[in-house]
Amino acid sequence: MKSYTINAPLQIDATIELPASKSISNRALIIYALSHGGILPKNLSDCDDTEVIIAALKNSPDIIDIKAAGTAMRFMTAFLSSTLGSHTITGTERMQHRPIKILVDALKSLGANISYIKEDGFPPLHITGKQLTGGHLQIPGNISSQYISALLMIGPILKQGLELELSGEIVSRPYINMTLKIMAYFGAEAQWESENIIKVSPKPYINKAYLVENDWSGSSYWYEIMALCKDDQAKIHLTGLFRNSLQGDSVIQDIFAKLGVRTVFEESGTDATTTVTLTKTPYHLESFTYDFTKCPDLAQTVVVTCCELGIKFHFTGLASLKIKETDRIEALKIELRKLGFILHDEHDDTLIWNGDRCEASMAPIDTYEDHRMAMAFAPTCFVHKDLLMNNPQVVSKSYPHFWDDLRQANFLIKQN
């Protein structure tokens, strides 16, 4: 088991090439495969999640191991169900305890041939693919948007297309809209028919060149670094982001404007990409209330930042954090206590810090096989010297060169 000792620089002036968006990469790859085309999307993410999809599509093995990639499990389950072939899809021990029943039931109602190998409702799955009929389908709107996106992306190749009705509250709507926009770029006719119904016509995709934008989720850790660093003259330049991004997590710039970080866009090419420059700006926030329903992947970063800045908070819309790589709500409570913060949760979807403190143990931060735990806690080294972290390599899931980028910004990182 590796561990790192992390120390922060006194000054920061860095230019960082962010990783490509894995959310966009993974969607573009599935659509690329469904279009039977030869033009591979450009600037694909080099993270674990994307690489397992590339390997599965390229090699089409009988047994597809997607490791810890939840997006790949959901997208590939729908893809394999709707394309010819027989496969077993599996993953890590944690992945085999992440629920997939809602998606499997939905696909079965469309005619899919899927069976559970070990335990009902969970991977691994055996899938015999075929052309599915499609038609009307109703599922809850408060499930992971990856289930919804998985179903939407196969819609154009279904005989009758797909009419997807989402019941109740719809969470992570920006991720659904991202999927629809990428589908439309590749020629699909897919749009909201009403507040809760999406219609996808049975019109095949057209393969064409596509450029994947860089990752706004990955930028969030640099926003946190800017917020926590002590250098009033600090500058961080982040390249390859889109001003008019498909990513819901681009809202990070608005969130951190309240936490003392200013965002300036600068055009940097002939496409839509820009260089974003972060600087410090005064702020006067004493408490923060926010609903993360539309951007749950940002929650860990903002929670840790607010604690270290002494800003009390009441954050809602966190239900999906319970079923991510780990139970992120519980993990945040445990690890922040090591740094001296006592958090409380309510209703499995709310996290609260009222300013309660305890003596910091400074025990090593555990990462729970969760990339976002590692990256959200790394910037706390500005406050806690010689920060220890176990299993830091988990960042490979979404941001493989995160530690290299920190070193480039003059962080001191020692492997123990």
TrEMBL record:
Pfam families: EPSP_synthase (PF00275). It is found in: Cytoplasm. GO terms for molecular function: 3-phosphoshikimate 1-carboxyvinyltransferase activity. Keywords: Amino-acid biosynthesis, Aromatic amino acid biosynthesis, Cytoplasm, Transferase. Phosphoenolpyruvate binds at K22, G70, R98, Q146, R328, R372, K397. PROSITE patterns: EPSP_SYNTHASE_2. One of its GO terms (cellular component) is cytoplasm. It catalyses: 3-phosphoshikimate + phosphoenolpyruvate = 5-O-(1-carboxyvinyl)-3-phosphoshikimate + phosphate. Its EC number is 2.5.1.19. Residues 9-59, 61-406 form the Enolpyruvate transferase domain. 3-phosphoshikimate binds at K22, S23, R27, S144, S145, Q146, S172, D297, K324. InterPro entries: Enolpyruvate_Tfrase_dom, Enolpyruvate_Tfrase_sf, EPSP_synthase, EPSP_synthase_CS, RNA3'P_cycl/enolpyr_Trfase_a/b. The active site is at D297. Pathway: Metabolic intermediate biosynthesis; chorismate biosynthesis; chorismate from D-erythrose 4-phosphate and phosphoenolpyruvate: step 6/7. It comes from the Bacteria. GO terms for biological process: amino acid biosynthetic process; aromatic amino acid family biosynthetic process; chorismate biosynthetic process. Catalyzes the transfer of the enolpyruvyl moiety of phosphoenolpyruvate (PEP) to the 5-hydroxyl of shikimate-3-phosphate (S3P) to produce enolpyruvyl shikimate-3-phosphate and inorganic phosphate. Belongs to the EPSP synthase family. Monomer. This is 3-phosphoshikimate 1-carboxyvinyltransferase. It comes from Segatella baroniae B14.
